[in-house]
Each structure stands twice: as C-alpha cells, then as structure tokens.
Amino acid sequence: MYLKELFTTLPKFLDANIPVEVGSQPGAGKSESSDQIVERLAKRDGFPWGVSKCFIATLSPVDINGYLVPGRMQMKNPETGEIEEIRISEFTMPPWMISTEGKPMNSYKRGVVIFEEWDKGDPDTKKASAEVLLNGRAGRHALHAGISRIALVNRLADRSGSTKNFDFIINRRGELTVSTELSGWNDWALGTGVDPLFVAFADKNPDIVFSNSLPETQQPFCTPRSFVKLSKVLPSFTDAKGHLEHSTVTTEVAAGMVGVAAATKLMSWILLRNESPDFDDVLKDPENCPIPQRPDAKLMVCYELAHKVDKRTMSKVVTYVRRFPAEFAVTFSKAATRRDYDLINVPSMAAWVSKNASLLNAIGGAR
Q1: Which of 10, 78, 147, 183 has CA atoms 20 to 30 A from the CA of 19?
Q2: Domain ranges of the chain
Q3: CA separation (Å) from 44 to 11, 35, 38, 49, 338?
Q4: Phi, psi of 37 (to 5 degrees)
C-alpha cells in the first residue's frame, strides 16, 4: 500500500488491538507517519494517547524483561496462617512499559508501543520481545487492553542488517508493506513545512527521491528520509545575495547525505532557482515580473510562492500566477491551500477560484 493509505489502515489494527508489522524501504517515513497517526487518533478520541518507543536493535533480552533484582513480598504461611515477609526475585519495569513522557503506559486509556528497527534485533532479543509484541506482556509486567503494539521493519533486500524472523511470530500478527509515492509525500511535505525548493525537486525528480533501490556498494543514498534531512541543513548555506549557495562545500554536504548522483542533480536545480524571480521581486511588480521560461523553473517558483504567500500578499501573488499556464496555477493553488486552507477566503483568491473549475477541484482535493 502507499504511505497515505497507512493513515486509514493502521488505526483499524490499533483499535482492534492486533499487533502489526509495518515494513518498507529505508527512509520511507514509517516512524514519522506512525507518530502522526497516533496524534490523529488522540484528536479523534479527545484524550492523549501514550507512546512508548523501543529501539530493538540496541536492546538485549534482559532489557525486554527488566533487570532481576532482590525484592520482598508479604505471603500467608499455609501452616501457621500468619503473614510473613519473604525474599523474592523480581524484574524492574522494562522500557516498553514507560512512555516517551516518562509515565507508565498503563496510566493512559489508549496508547501504542512502537518497536523501532525490530527486524535488526538479534534473534534472542526478538524471541524475548515476541510475547510483548504479540500479547502485550512479559512476566509480571503487562499492558492493559487499550495499549497496542507496532513493529517497524525494513525489507530483507534493503541490506539494513535484518536478522532471522520466526514463523511463530509471523503467524500471530498482521503485516503491512508500505511503498512511497509522490502525491502522498507532497501532501505531507507541504503540511510540515519542508523547504519548497526540495518539494519542487521531488515533484520533478521522483525517480531520484523515491528510487526504491540501493546502490551496489555501501555509500550515502537518497531516500525520502535522507532527502528531508538534507532540506533542513542545506538552506543554511547562503551567499551574499541571500541565495542558496552553490559551491564545492554544499555539493560535498549534499553528496554526503543523498549520494553523488542525487547531489549533482540537486546542485543544478539550485542554480536554476538562483536564476528565477524571488518572492520580493513578485511583490514589487507582479504584472511585469519575468516569468521563467523553463517548465521546471515555473514549477519551482510556484512552490516557493505557495510556501511564502499569506493573506496580505495573496492579491499580488495571484496577479502574478494568473500569467502562468493553467497547470501551474493548479500547482500553486493546491500547495498554498494545503499549507493554509484559510487562504481560500482571501477575496482575490476566492474570485479567481470561483471562475476556474480546475482550481476549485484541486483545492477541494487539497483539503
């Protein structure tokens, strides 16, 4: 299934308290999507959900059960009938019983334990965690019925260090395989504020960002995850004009995160952006500001305008974008209203949309 379909499918497993394994290529967005799904479920239910995260690849069987320590227990002597205190061995509370907020998971009405990188745990740790994943318990520690469990994994073909799986686990939980695709990622990126230059690049080069394959030898490679991480670093490199820097340094930074091939293509994209009109240029003279000749430059400008426009500047931006071919107007409108749906209420935007059915359909889909 596509990542966007996970948002409607995974909640059904959580509500039924059926453990589920979610697999995909590296960097497809499983972790972030799981967090967002839990946030949506909390809003749906009207109360907070507890979340516990366990990075199985770094744990051992001892961590799953808790540490065995000396303890004491009150017990009735069957012969004398008297209450006696005896010494016992007991396990400390294991990490999966504690939420990311530092509270006991059972203090929440609903919640989920997320086993990150479960496929990379050593076989003994997988066996130890199986009872928790499948039944929500290990020894005397048990989650109540409102706490669900998810295991996040990569595919065996992804060379991510996945270890042996076990049929007794496979047969007792659900399994979902997620594929990345452009439209769902675009919706997510626009809603979370990913730099518009990178959103436009992904829109134009899905074969690079969503390649679904690995390089033959180990080296940095491009996935949606590494691409988004780069989008948080690279914009901090600017030249004297405030443009994104194009240099050997930024090329090296990009190559070190998404690989040489993707970095080379991205650097060319940055040069194209630096030659295109800025947001301020559009506001100064929207009727005469040059329109880029190349379609990919038009696309890039549309995403940047959608990223920066607000109610105060919408009238001038609409004046400029109306000079673009119709398909780019749709791109701008959908991206702008995805970021802030209230922009549809700006008079200049509302008047434009009311006369253009394709814009109305695009904005309806964006919502």
Answers
A1: 183
A2: 3-64+98-177, 182-366
A3: 11, 14, 10, 11, 21
A4: -65, -45
Give the alpha-carbon dihedral of 132, 138, 141, 147, to 10 degrees: 10
**CATH node for 3-64+98-177:** 3.40.50.300
Q: State in Å, rounded, how far the first CA of the chain is from the last one.
A: 22
Residues 171 and 41 sit within 8 Å (Cβ to Cβ): no
C-alpha angle 50-55-59 in degrees, rounded to nearest 5: 120
Residue 277: pLDDT band (50, 70, 90) is confident
Residue 358: per-residue pLDDT: 66
* Both structure tokens of 192: 């979370």
Q: Give the 3-state secondary structure of residue 97.
A: helix
> DSSP H helical segments within the chain, as ranges?
3-16, 30-45, 61-65, 123-135, 167-170, 182-192, 196-204, 206-209, 224-233, 248-258, 260-274, 279-284, 295-308, 314-321, 326-339, 347-354, 357-366
Q: How far apart are CA 16 and CA 161, in angstroms?
A: 31
Compute the C-alpha angle 362/195/239, nearest 5°: 140
Rounded average pLDDT over 168-176: 85
Distance CA 312, CA 124 (A): 60
What's the whole-number mean pLDDT along residues 173-190? 78
What is d(CA 109, CA 144) in angstroms, rounded to the nearest whole number? 9
Dihedral angle, C-alpha 50, 54, 55, 56, nearest 10 °: -140
Report the amino acid identity of residue 347. Answer: P
Q: What is the pLDDT of residue 344?
A: 84
- How far apart are alpha carbons 218 and 160 in whole angstroms? 11
Contacts for 80 with CB less than 8 Å, ≥ 6 apart: none
Phi-psi region of 347 (alpha: psi -120 to 50; beta: other; left: phi over 0): alpha
Residue 270 exposure: Cα atoms within 13 Å on the Cβ side: 22
